[in-house]
Amino acid sequence: MGNKGKLCSIALASSVLVFVFLVLISAAASAAQITKIGTGYDPAVYGDKVVWTNGVVIHLYDLTNRTGIRFSSSGASSPDIYENKIVWHDESIGTPRIAVYDISTATKSYITQEVDQYSRPAVYDNRIVWSANDSVYLRDISNSTQEKIGNGTNPDIYDTKVVYYSYSEDPEADITIRMYDIDTGERKTVVSYGDPNIPRIWDTRVIWSDVYNHQGYIAMYDILTENITDVTHPLDADPDGNEYGASTGTHISIQDDKIVYNKCVDDYEGKPGVYLYNISAGQSTLIYGYPEEVYTTPEVYNNTIVWGLDRNYVDGTSGNDIYLCDLAAGPEISQT
Fold first, then answer.
1. 3-state class of 10 per DSSP?
2. What is the pLDDT along the chain (336 residues), one digit of tens a residue?
3. CATH at residue 261
């Protein structure tokens, strides 16, 4: 009977926590025009289309007519989209490969050479980049050519530039973000201090997470000026001597003048949740609040932000909703 009383207390406490969490989510949703559009992981957005996966199905959602289609692909993860092309990591036959799907023709093809279990593809126009066995590969699907372009991991592509993480390519540095020019074949080091990782590129800007401390912070490189600026705070101390910062680097994305990221700690820098950073204004906005230690995967295109929960931090049976925020449809929550 004594244990029953303890169990009731635990159940009541759990119910209160769940209620508080739902209140937080509801308040955020009503303030920022948040819409649940599905369930799954790894959302990506381009134009009026959002793509994500639940591991066995690829979901494609049309923002204009609010309809979606699905097609089977067991072992699917890490989808990316550009115009009418979707790419993702596929293990439906037990062997890692990269799937390429053409939306306009509803046809699917595969890249099978130089792909491993960690390959995460990124696509721009007819070019796809990924890494395998610490090497970076580029494939042009318009002429079916493929080449190794560097030594590293986590590549991203914009137009004729590819950025990636490398620990072996620059003889003068241990850990770097490198940039490869497709037209000239030239490589250069963007940054070589701290622990830079997860590079992302859009137009003339490159961002990355410096994960030297805790969950890291975001820094940005301007290709034209070669200047590096901090987007979020590295590890520091607030006026009371409490540690803060280095809690914004788990997932980052950039498009035009916007950067979105996940913050997982409540500290002097701000509350945890999904954030939007306006590059021109130099200002961060909390889009959707979460409790601490919740890891999200936000992506952005124009006025659309999409996100889910990082599959590495959930059990796969709950908390895997995909959300959409339309910045043009309503007010933002708060600024930090």
1. helix
2. 444 333 333 333 333 333 334 334 434 443 458 999 999 999 999 999 999 999 889 999 999 999 999 988 888 999 999 999 999 999 999 999 999 999 999 999 999 999 999 999 999 999 999 999 999 999 999 999 999 999 999 999 999 999 999 998 999 898 999 999 999 999 999 999 999 999 999 999 999 999 999 999 999 999 999 999 999 999 999 999 999 999 999 999 999 999 999 999 999 999 999 999 999 999 999 999 999 999 999 999 999 999 999 988 765 445 789 999 999 886 544 444
3. 2.130.10.10
What is the count of structural domains for the chain? Answer: 1
* CA pair distance 9, 309, nearest whole angstrom: 29
CB 194 within 8 A of CB 210: yes
Handedness of CA 295, 301, 306, 312 (dihedral sign): negative
Assign residue 285 a region: left if phi > 0, alpha if psi is -120 to 50, beta otherwise?
beta
Find the domain containing 79 and state its range: 2-335
- Pairing outcome for strands 41-46 and 127-132: unpaired
Phi, psi of 181 (to 5 degrees): -95, 115
Number of other residues whose CB lies within 10 A of the CB of residue 122? 23
